[in-house]
Amino acid sequence: MIKYLSIFFAIIVSVSAVADCMDDPQSQLEMTSCANDKYETIQNKLDTLVTKIKVRVSEDQANKLDWLQNTWLSVAKAHCTWIKDLYGRGSVGPMQYNACMSEQVRDRINDLRLLLCEGYGMTGECSASKEYENL
Hints:
The protein is mainly alpha-helical. The chain has one domain (39-135). It contains 5 helices and no strands. Mean pLDDT is 85; it is low at 4-10.
């Protein structure tokens, strides 16, 4: 039962991440393209955020962040591939993958954004972190 609830939740999260793209889709291809565009947009925001953080930390910490991002990306891709594979070879799979990756990236941004602030977020939000709020 828990397995099925987990699958259901993953599907709901994936679908909600692209809901605004679906105002008037004409085909599965359009929905997949929209989900891909959203993923690319939010991934660019994460890349910018990571670059800003790397400027604030030592070279050693920047190198560790690069390693950590690569590791995180591998896990995120594996998770979203699993979500996509729930659909078999169906045409909805790629859309679900992109929606899942968008959600993973959004969560990662939320994990990292306070590092732009004084004390790496110990004092709370700052204007730099608010730029990455509610994506």
